[in-house]
Amino acid sequence: MQILVCVKQVPDTEAKVLVAEDGVSISERDITFIMNPYDEYAVEAAVRIKEASTEDVSISLVTVGPPRADDALRLGVAMGAGSAVRVWDQGLEGLDGGAVAMVLGVVAQRTGFDLILCGRIAIDDAMGEVPLRLAARLGLPHANAVTELTVESGSARARCEVEGGSQVIELTLPAVVTAQKGLNEPRYPAIPAIMKARRMPIEVHTLESLGLDLDQVRAASRTHVEGLDVPPARGAGRVIEADLPDEAARELARLLRDEAKVL
Amino acid sequence: MSGDIYVFCETKDGGFRRVCGELLTQFRGVADAGQQALCAIVVGAPVADELPQLSEWAADKVVHVTSPQLSDTPEALAAALTALARDAAPSLLVFGNTPLARAVAPRVAEGLDAAFVGDAVAMDRQDDGLHLVRPVYGSKLLCRVGVPSDSPAVITVRPNALGFAEVQASAPTLEDVEVMLDTDQRMSTVVETAVKTGGRVSLQEAEIIVSGGRGLGDGQGFAVIEELADALGGAVGASRVAVDSGWISVDHQVGQTGKAVSPNLYVACGISGAIQHFAGMGSSRVIVAINKDPDCPMCEKADYTLVGDLYKLAPALAAELRRMSDES
Fold first, then answer.
1. Cβ of B191 and A229 within 8 Å?
2. Strands of A175-179's sheet, edge to edge?
3. Do B246 and B120 lie in a common domain?
């Protein structure tokens, strides 16, 4: 069985994110990049399927990103993936999820797949667009926001988060599954595995080497970022002082009703 | 811009979700400016009883979609909406950003060769098209996105973000449309559904949320949070620490790796306010912090802060709110 895991490198959640001079991207100075946390669940799920399976399972990683994104791929390899592909082209800078899904679709068809695993969203743009576009492109069934996954002989069972609970979906493979928090606890790779992953060759592609034409990929990117803004700061509010909890509660309830008008 | 504006009307517990009303009333102005029809799209469930509601929300037309092949998987719904929109060619298909929409909308966008913008919190229609604002990088920045006017677009809008617009009631026409699904696209089946019905309002649509965090000390503490949420008629949220400690299930988590919410009132109990938590609730209209540390980041950003023991303050507030509602 061939599992393809799509990963993305994103700024660390602690990172102080500043708008770059162009006004439409962020300044990368002083930013630590990590593998998108939801993609880590996806990689871990793939490795667990491989470990539990009696058949031969191979795991490939793919990312669309600049050279620094190799670090995310190497983490995935250290966790247990067998190979990694990175696609980059200057022309991809600033293109949206429609373009990324097109590129990933071409890579998926080259590597082959029985199962495509992705994170539910990436924590940078939080769009949750690419995996479902990819499923539609490839004509595959999908399970979104999955918290439990079992795979056996050509089918998968996935527990998906839905409003107010969960739903178990049975999918005939090949399929696209997106990982939600709770699916697993990603492992910390051992030092020897990290060392080995550093030496692992990463297959790097440009659009041209994938047989894609930049104009065609651009046409799949239909939105454009007009600007990034810092949200208005929230000023410090009012501290309600009172000796007794009842008095403080009464004052707060009054303010919520009469001043904030939220009750 | 040509082509109608379609608003997908998701039902819950037998009625339309509140966000459907926000979207229909807010997009009324967009439709008028572009001389487009505003259509409420209802898939599956019968609609006859709901027409007065959709009239109040100013829909020009109600499109009731059925299909003999419809099942309850997100793919089937995506296939039905794709089939409908391929024929009718709306310029815009709008969803509330709910768990169902997240499992459906991008798939529809791809099927229509359409643009996709998710989780919009503000919008502005100009002559050159629609401009949306969405939080990115854990709400540390807001991204302005232009939606092209020369290609169709699928967008999702965060519940509570736009609110209701004042509209005049309409007299919508009802159109029944049967669509045939591309059966190759329908390869998954639902084998089990475990959903709590009734009970509290959903986290993302709630106008009021009471959340608990590390300061609770243990999982028992959520009894106090629930009591306050009940007194306010709100939903229960939680910080990552509370979820990771096993005090409450992950579907309650608010934050960068949980849900992003925009309620009218967010009451943070024992939550220090890490930036990852703030990422999920920083756009709340009014924030109340109940915390023993007045210098914590949450208290610095809250509109109102109660300093002290949350086990005393939260029940006192719940009691006061109950007293107030008994009086009125």
1. no
2. A203-205, A83-87, A58-64, A2-6, A115-119, A175-179, A142-152, A155-162, A165-172, B188-195
3. no
**What is the mean pLDDT, run by run of 10 residues, along chain A of 263 residues?**
98 92 94 97 98 96 98 98 97 96 98 97 96 97 97 93 91 96 96 96 97 97 95 86 91 94 90
What residue type is assigned to position A259 of the chain? E
Q: A169, A216, A254: which to substitute to probe chain B, counting the most B Cβ within 10 Å?
A: A169
DSSP H helices, B57-177, are 74-88, 99-102, 105-111
- What is the domain range of residue B71? 5-185
Closest residue on chain B to A227 (Cα): B144
| Same domain membership, residue B229 and residue B177 | no
- Tell me if the domain spanning A2-219 has CATH number 3.90.1150.10: no
Shared domain check, B106 and B40? yes
The CA distance from A13 to the nearest CA of chain B, in Å, is 7
**Domain residue ranges of chain A, discontinuous segments joined by +:** 2-219, 238-263
Instruction: Name the domain count of chain B.
Output: 2
Q: What is the pLDDT of residues A62-103, one digit of tens each?
A: 999 999 999 999 999 999 999 999 999 999 999 999 999 999
> Is pTM beyond 0.90 here?
yes
pLDDT tens column, A151-163: 988 999 999 999 8
Phi-psi region of A130 (alpha: psi -120 to 50; beta: other; left: phi over 0): alpha
Share of chain A above pLDDT 90, in %: 92
